[in-house]
C-alpha cells in the first residue's frame, strides 16, 4: 500500500509517499480502507522528532484519525462487518491507504456525513468533550471561555458548549469572528488587539467565567486563573505558547476554590482512550447531521501532498480541520 513516510526528522519536505507493507490484522482490530485522514498538530511534532520513532499501538506511521470502509474484521470484534463505514482515532497509521483500528475506538459514520467530514470529527470532538464535560463539568447556564475558538479542538468545543446551553466566550483572530459566531460563540475576543482578561471582566461584571479551556500555556496561565469565577475550572489542553515562567496566583486559587486539570489524549492508556471515545459516542454522535453538529473543514489535500498540508498548519493558515484523502 502507499503511505507517507520520512527518513529523517525535519521540515514538511521530509514527507514522501512510498510503498510499505499493509498492517496485519489482530483479533480486536478492524482493517480499514482509508478514504480520509485528519491532520493534527501531533503529526507535526511526530515529524519534527518530538516523539522519537514511536509505536503508538497500531502503527509506527504518522496519523491519528481515519474515516473509511472496513475491509477485514478480527476474530474478537463485535458490532462491525466488512463494508461498514467507520471513523475513529488510531494509534498511528492514518497517513496510509489501509489502517488498522481497535474496534472499541471505531464509530459508525453518520449517514449524512461524507468521509472528509468524518475524518475531521473524532480527534477534536472527543478531546473537546473530555475537556468540557468529563473534566470541566460544564452545565447549562454557565459561562465558558474557550481559547483558539477557530482551531480544531477549539471550534469543536464552541459547538458542544453552545449545544449544552452555556454562554460561550472565545478568542480568535478577527478574520475568523464570523465563523466562530456561526458555530455558537456568543462573544468573540480579538486576541491580537484585545486582552482577553479585561474583556472577560467587562462581560461578566468582574465575576469571571465558570470554565476555561486553554491551548496556549504559560503566556495565558496567570490571566486564566484570574479570570475564573468562584469554583471555576481551568482545563489545560495544550502548551502552544510554551511552559517557561508560568505564574500561578496561589491566593486566587485558594480563596476562590478553583480547580486546574491537564489532559493529553495521546499519553493515556488504551482503556482510558476507549472510555473517552465511548463517552463522546453515547452523548454526541447522533447529533451530527445537516441541522446539528458539524466539523469545520479548512482544506483538503491528496495523501501525496501531505507536506503541503503540514506547511499550511505550521504557518497557522488553517481555520478548522485539514484533511488528507487517500
Structure description:
29% of the residues lie in helices and 26% in strands. With 326 residues, the chain is an alpha/beta fold. The strands form 3 sheets. Strands 3, 4, 5, 6, 7, 14 and 15 form a 7-stranded mixed sheet that branches. It has a 6-stranded parallel sheet with strand order 10-9-8-11-12-13, with helices on both faces. Helix 3 (122-135) packs across helix 4 (152-164) and helix 3 crosses helix 9 (270-284). The longest helix is centred in the last third of the chain and has 15 residues, at 270-284. The protein is globular and about 60 Å long.
Separate helix tally: 10
How many DSSP E strands?
15
Radius of gyration computed on alpha carbons:
20 Å
Profile the largest sheet: 7 strands, mixed
What is the topology?
Blueprint: E1 2-5, E2 16-19, E3 29-39, H1 41-48, E4 65-73, E5 85-89, E6 98-102, E7 106-108, H2 115-119, H3 122-135, E8 143-146, H4 152-164, E9 167-172, H5 177-183, E10 187-190, H6 196-203, E11 209-214, H7 218-226, E12 228-236, H8 250-255, E13 259-262, H9 270-284, E14 297-302, H10 306-314, E15 321-325
Parallel strand pairs: 8-9, 8-11, 9-10, 11-12, 12-13, 14-15
Antiparallel strand pairs: 1-2, 3-4, 3-6, 3-15, 4-5, 5-7
Helix pairs in contact: 3-4, 3-9
Key features?
alpha/beta; 26% strand; seven-stranded mixed β-sheet; 326 residues; 15 strands; globular
Offer a quick outline of the entry.
With about 325 residues, this protein is α/β, with parallel strands linked by helices. It contains ten helices and 15 strands.
